[in-house]
């Protein structure tokens, strides 16, 4: 599992647009690596320099292993809040155990608590951040109490008993804690800049898209033809003014209604609507001349053209309907048919008359 510390598999699975989640994961990964290395170094220092290997040392070793386990388990359970909370508690536990063997209330490791509190706020938000801050303050009060009234519970086993070693420990710990806090502040600043840059870019893209959409909306709204947009199953989402003029139904009347079931009447060829439904299921184009019924009940003929449109962003298929009123042409066709029928009838009678003559 150690090699997975440098694996970007989970990082790459986070949505590219979720910049905050990506930044938090990078901080989680870095802190897990640092926590493991600190446990390793403290263990090596205690065993090699102080020549001590007791339960406390083994506990620090186990804590280091838990850093790696917690990091890799996130790939399996994918619950970021749980992994981040465990990380914060492990760090608090590590500092707690280290303080017993680094001077109690005088331990230089107390400096790291400020970095831990910042980490908790950045990864987990205000509520858990304040909880970690409270536990840190409680830990300081606890070590003050035992250092004052039970001094035998603490020692300088990890640091060393001489003044020079204690001063050296304070020097390195102070410098390292400043480095950690500076890195966290730098992380916050860079993360903020990345988020602002992405927001600005998205705002500009959205502004350009809105301009195009306004143009298209004006064109579609003012078009003479009826235009309607449905979702993937034919539920109406938007219609233009031309649609209202043709059918008598406005946007509020039709939103949420099934486009394949509206406008039908006694003389409507329902098989055409079945064909339209099948074309929707297969995401195919569809065109037909359909007899429909106006809101007021009168009949009208319309030339319907249906086109499927798939969004590049969410891959959802919608359908655009463009309809034109062909009632006048259909009436003319019926009259022409009647005229031809009457003409044929007249010609037949003339033929009979000519035969008799």
Structural write-up:
By secondary structure, this protein is an alpha+beta fold. Helices cover 64% and strands 11% of the residues. It has 10 helices and 5 strands, in the order H-H-H-H-H-H-E-E-H-H-H-E-E-E-H. Strands 2-1-5-4-3 form a 5-stranded antiparallel beta sheet, with helices on both faces. A hairpin with a 6-residue loop joins strand 4 and strand 5. The relative contact order is 0.06. The N terminus is likely disordered.
Set out the fold topology.
Layout (H helix, E strand, L loop, with lengths): L8 H5 L5 H30 L6 H23 L2 H21 L11 H38 L13 H60 L3 E5 L5 E4 L1 H7 L3 H4 L15 H12 L4 E8 L5 E12 L6 E9 L1 H30 L1
Antiparallel strand pairs: 1-2, 1-5, 3-4, 4-5
Helix pairs in contact: 2-3, 2-4, 2-6, 3-4, 4-5, 5-6
Keywords:
single chain, 357 residues, alpha+beta, five-stranded antiparallel β-sheet, 10 helices, 5 strands, rod-shaped, disordered N terminus
């Amino acid at each position: 599992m150690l090699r997975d510390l440098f694996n970007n598999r989970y990082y790459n699975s986070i949505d590219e647009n979720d910049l905050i989640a990506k930044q938090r994961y990078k901080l989680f990964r870095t802190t897990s690596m640092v926590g493991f290395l600190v446990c390793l170094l403290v263990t090596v220092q205690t065993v090699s320099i102080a020549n001590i290997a007791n339960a406390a040392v083994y506990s620090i070793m186990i804590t280091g292993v838990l850093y790696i386990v917690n990091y890799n388990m996130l790939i399996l359970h994918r619950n970021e809040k749980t992994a981040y909370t465990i990380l914060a508690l492990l760090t608090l536990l590590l500092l707690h155990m280290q303080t017993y063997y680094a001077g109690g209330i005088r331990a230089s490791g107390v400096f790291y608590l400020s970095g831990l509190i910042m980490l908790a706020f950045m990864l987990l938000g205000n509520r858990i951040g304040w909880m970690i801050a409270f536990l840190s303050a409680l830990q300081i009060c606890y070590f003050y109490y035992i250092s004052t009234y039970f001094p035998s519970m603490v020692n300088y086993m990890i640091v060393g008993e001489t003044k020079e070693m204690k001063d050296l420990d304070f020097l390195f710990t102070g410098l390292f804690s400043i480095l950690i806090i500076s890195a966290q502040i730098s992380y916050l600043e860079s993360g903020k800049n990345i988020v602002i840059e992405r927001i600005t870019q998205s705002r500009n893209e959205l502004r350009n898209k809105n301009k195009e959409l306004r143009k298209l909306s004006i064109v579609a709204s003012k078009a003479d033809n009826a235009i309607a947009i449905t979702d993937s199953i034919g539920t109406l989402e938007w219609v233009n003014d031309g649609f209202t003029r043709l059918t008598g139904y406005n946007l509020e009347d039709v939103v949420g209604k099934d486009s394949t079931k509206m406008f039908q009447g006694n003389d409507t060829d329902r098989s055409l609507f079945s064909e339209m439904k099948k074309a929707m299921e297969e995401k195919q184009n569809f065109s037909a001349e359909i007899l429909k019924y106006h809101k007021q009940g009168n009949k009208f003929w319309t030339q319907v053209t249906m086109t499927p449109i798939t969004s590049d962003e969410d891959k959802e298929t919608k359908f655009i309907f463009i309809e034109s009123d062909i009632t006048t042409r259909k009436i003319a066709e019926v009259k022409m048919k009647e005229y031809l029928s009457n003409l044929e009838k007249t010609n037949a009678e003339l033929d009979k008359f000519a035969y008799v003559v």
